[in-house]
Amino acid sequence: MTAGREVRLLLHVGATEWGGAEVMVRNLLGALGDHVRPTLMGVDDGVLERVVEVRPGTEVLRVPRIGGSRDWAAVREHRRAMRGARPDVVQLNLPVPFSEPWTLLGASTLPGVRVIAVEHLPMPTPSAKLRAVRRVLDPRLAAEVAVGGPAARELERLRHRPAGSIRVVWNGVPVPVPGAVPPRPRGARVLVGGVGRLHEQKGFDVLVRALALLPPDVHVVLVGDGPEAAALRALAHDLGVADRLMLTGWVDRPSSWYAALDVLAMPSRFEGLPLVLLEALHAGVPVVATPVGSVSDAVRDGETGLLVPVGDAEALAAAVARLASEPDLGARVAADGRALATEWFTVAAMARSYEALYDEVLGRR
């Protein structure tokens, strides 16, 4: 973007919980150039505080959560706050495609403002009402962005949209900073990690089933917390591998575990472009993942990692065993994965791509 061409940007974060989509906004906010004057808007004080700490001095607008299609008072408050910020561009962060329809509606009625919707997960919209709302709203958007190529194509298929109508800006992450390495479990010759929220989406139950098919000196550590924690412990007990499964609970710096891992397993059932995957590539950890969402943008089977079918514990176990028994393969995919991440999946590259998009929608290119 041309130096000195100021962009007044309003970043909207509607989440009430901290997740990958919110981390992406935090990463972006911290990396945008000085010519971008951001305002951060959202509904949750805790989320807003964590995002804005990377860019002190950023104006923060706290608005009420919209309770549904009849909560017009909250919709008007969102629109009033956006209008008062006098943005050139409003960028809405959508953890799922059907979130924030009424905020999108308010933003789309602001005269002269370009609205960008960033879609983090390629999922179907669950209700006919919301699908109808999006059909009305989508033509009013200056741009729709997906976090990877396959995710964009899937969203186009779900929305019956022309190929190429949804843009791609890859997520970027900071290179993990080396720190104190957590101790490995006793007896673990091979340590496989799963990092993230313990939720059915992440497929960690498949990883526990795979653990039962692997030799006794293979252990699994799940770094994170979530609603599936008790069920995963119970499954490990039933399969006789409870002594080889470690659940850390909530960890402030999950990236500290990468240096302790021999393999990162990501057996997700659905994804966009997960930040944990990109962090592991930057950290040089061999990755086994499922080809969901835009994972295949980063994991090229046999080149930058290994891909296995969704829900297939036997294939996951075989891939882990292969990496454990072929150290040269593990070293090669780790090195190639790190090289790919360094080229494509950095915070700086992501920020420059968004800056170019702002330039484009404002007619400055």
UniProtKB/TrEMBL annotation:
InterPro entries the UniProt entry points to: Glyco_trans_4-like_N
GO molecular function: glycosyltransferase activity
Keywords in alphabetical order: Glycosyltransferase, Transferase
Residue stretches making up the Glycosyltransferase subfamily 4-like N-terminal domain: 18-174
Domain of life: Bacteria
Pfam families: Glyco_trans_1_4, Glyco_transf_4
Official protein name in the record: Glycosyltransferase involved in cell wall biosynthesis
Organism: Nocardioides aurantiacus
